[in-house]
Structures are given as C-alpha cells and as structure tokens.
Write a structure and sequence with these properties.
about 270 residues; alpha+beta; seven-stranded mixed sheet; about 30% strand
Length: about 270
C-alpha cells in the first residue's frame, strides 16, 4: 500500500485523520495503537495500517487470520470528548455502518451487518463474513477501533468455509488503496455527525441507518451469552444503547448487549 498517497488523500487541515502509518508486518494494529496511545504521543485521528497481521484478534478473543496483502487491516484512534462515555458503545456499530457504506461505494458490493459489527457479503447465494470490527479503550479518553476486511482472498485461501471476501462477492475493484480511502472518508463523515450531536444515535441518523442495513433484524437467532446462557428469539430491534432486542417465545422482549449471535433461520420460517 502507498503510504504517501494515503496521507495525501486523507490527512488535511481540519480533518479527522492526523497521520497514516503503514507497516509491512505486525502482531496486531489494535495492540500497537493502544500501546502508543498510552504513551500520550498520539493525537486523535491516528491510523495504523498493516500489510499483514500475525496475532490479530476479533470479538470474544477469536483469532483473525489472512494472507499478507490480501485485505485491509487497520486501526484508528478516536477521542470523542464531546460524547458521554455511556454512548461510546455505539462506536463499533458506527464503524460497521461506515465500513459497509464506504465499501458499497468503492467496491460496488452489496453489504450487510450482522449484529453487532460483522460485515456480510453474498457469495454463491449465501451470506459470508468478510470483515469484523474490534473496539478497545485506550486510556481514559480514547478508543482504538480495529477493522479487518477480506479483499482478494480466493476460496482456497479462506480460513473457514463460512468466510468470504470482496473478490468472491464480485467487487468491481480490489485495489486496496482506494478502498481504504473510501472506508476512512465514510468513517470520518459518520463520526463527525455522531459527535456533533453528543453521540445521540437517533438524532445523528445512526440508529436508523444501522437498523436498515442489519441482516440480523427480522431473523430467528440464538444468543450465546456470558455464563453459558442461551436465548432464542426473533431479533426485532436495536435499542438506543445499541443492544439487540429479542422477542422470545414467552412473549418477552429482552435486550442483548454482549455475546455471540447465531442466525438460526429467517423470521417466519419453518419451526
């Protein structure tokens, strides 16, 4: 990836992005950026991009693996001082919306989001996961958000059969530089809207836009919760705190804020 070209296209006076660094290989861009932020030397808007990650992590401490130069692997540092900390939980969902929007424009691929922030594409008529997002606190005033997106992987390079890539989904472009610029510009736009209204998901349009692009809503799902608990129900809404609301067979609506979500079948399908 062309670091000079990325900086020229993204770093500008008054913009969110303040620096863009590209490394050939690292363990985890998230871990690196969290450590640098702890040293107090980074401004908001720092972006770290890796051609290859050897110890990348996803949600629930899952490993994320991909061949070198086969995808977009990057992390950003945000410091949303104007937003109450109680609303920071929207940042991973906001990033999901921004990534989906940016890739739809830059790659010409239809994307959807599996709650909370897995990026789905369609390959051979079935949903496949092509990307994920991980947010981590960086000190008292910062959040580092990591994004991993499979771009050019072929079938024989996929880590699991349920994975996908932009190429397999028929992307019109797999040139990673313009894809990354498109995603980061989209993230800057959504983050600016959300921050300008104090992180209000309704007023910023984030809650509505997320719900419109969320493939989980309207589906029967199984929520695998902390403490070895399970909850099965229809995903009916995303509430003001970004939680997934499930309508259970007992007629109760329960919000889920953490855990793993498994799409069981479409709502209204055979039981």
């Amino acid at each position: 990836m062309n670091a000079v070209g990325l900086r020229r296209g993204l770093v500008r006076a008054g913009g969110l992005w303040t620096r863009v660094d590209v490394v050939q290989r690292t363990g985890s861009t998230n871990s690196d950026l969290v450590a640098r932020a702890a040293e107090g030397a980074l401004k908001e808007g720092a972006v770290l991009v890796a051609e290859e990650q050897t110890a990348a992590r996803g949600r629930l401490d899952r490993r994320w693996t991909a061949p070198a130069r086969s995808g977009l692997f990057f992390s950003v540092l945000l410091r949303p001082a104007e937003v109450p900390v109680a609303r920071w939980g929207w940042l991973p969902l906001l990033t999901g919306v921004a990534v989906a929007t940016g890739l739809s424009r830059a790659a010409g691929v239809d994307t959807a989001l599996k709650w909370p922030n897995d990026l789905l594409v369609t390959v051979g008529g079935e949903e496949r996961k092509a990307g994920g997002i991980l947010a981590e606190r960086a000190g008292d005033d910062g959040v580092v958000i990591g994004v991993g997106i499979n771009v050019s992987l072929r079938d024989d390079e996929l880590p699991v059969p349920t994975a996908g890539s932009l190429a397999l989904a028929g992307a019109v472009s797999t040139d990673r530089d313009p894809l990354l610029r498109g995603v980061l510009r989209s993230l800057e736009d959504w983050y600016g809207r959300w921050r300008a209204v104090g992180g209000d998901p309704g007023e910023s349009g984030l809650q509505e836009t997320y719900a419109a692009g969320c493939a989980t809503l309207g589906r029967m799902v199984r929520a695998e919760l902390p403490g070895d608990r399970e909850l099965v129900g229809e995903a009916v809404a995303v509430d003001g705190d970004g939680r997934l609301v499930l309508a259970t067979g007992e007629g109760v609506q329960e919000p889920v804020g953490a855990g793993d979500i498994v799409h069981v079948r479409p709502a209204g399908g055979a039981r």
